[in-house]
Sequence to fold (387 residues):
Amino acid sequence: MTEMVYGTVPVRAGEPVLSRWWRTVDRWSLACVLLLFGLGLLLGLAASVPLASRNGLPPFHYVDRQAFFGIFSMAAMFLTSLVSPDRVRRIGVVGFLLTFVALALLPVFGSSFGKGAIRWYSLGFTSVQPSEFVKPCFVVLCGWLMAASQEINGPPGKLASFGVTIVVVGFLAMQPDFGQSALVLFAWGVMYFVAGAPIVLLAGVAMLVGGGSVLAYNFSDHFAKRINMFMSADLDPRTQVGYAINAIQEGGFFGTGVGQGQVKWQLPDAHTDFIIAVAAEEYGTLMVVFILGLYTTILVRSLTRLMRERDPFVRIAGTGLACIFAVQALVNMSVAVRLLPAKGMTLPFISYGGSSLIAAGITVGMLLALTRTRPQGDIGEIFKRGR
Fold:
């Protein structure tokens, strides 16, 4: 009955699933994702060859693996974008339970791979980073809890979501992974704001975060070292950030030319955390601006669609997914130009990494599913009916 009264999109009886999906999905955002993945393969051809050479592997070993994981990522995105918001919620809740258990067991069964933080499970042929999969599921779970709290006689969902956030952040900080912790806190804060949280409460949470940062600085050498390097007036040109900034300066507006960059030979993480430096050096500022435009398009179009939604869960969870995706990209690029301390965060769909790539596909798949045009109408109709 709701669809008959508030219908804004004609329902076509017997319409095939794929036809309905194509008609209702945000095709601009979908095109931007495909372009980002294509650029990731293009930049991988430049950034990963030196690493393969150092490790005695075939030149395009990492590009082949990126393409392999990309197939699963695109499949996950497509399949997830087909489902309804109710099913997105179920996938998110069940997925959170599974991924949280995996996150909690990292101190026992996880591996650091010599990087100083236990973040991965080693499977022999590859590794899995649970925190990447926790993020989209966490957002959906908290979106559901916050939406449920707005119902008459509903549960204390906002308080429950805060408890879940503290627990997740605690396990991430134990690895230690302060970058992902900050990203999870940011996503929760944005969703809490959209759900109608008072500014005073958000300010109180911000103060708690500030206090936690002070404690982390005093008791974590890993955290303190990165903050000290960031705050130092002098930048050591032999550090990863130093090489990245020099590469960006060398690239200029149009770049040094395809294959002519040198930073990929100097940085061990040129194909992951600092791949934007490779893009800036070889293709110039124009490429960086183009990449920024793709992420911005996905964010703006998603938020624009979500503003018209009447379903609280869709609005809250969709906003969290859009923001956590875009802010991760922003953090990665900000680190490369020393606007933020080094955090070890990948650039979605562009950086090398199986867990990151597949998790990004799930995140955007959920976002596309929540932003599809549906017959229930949008929030603007409530105001029209009230006139």
Q: What stands out?
A: Strands lie at 121-122, 127-128. The radius of gyration is 22 Å.
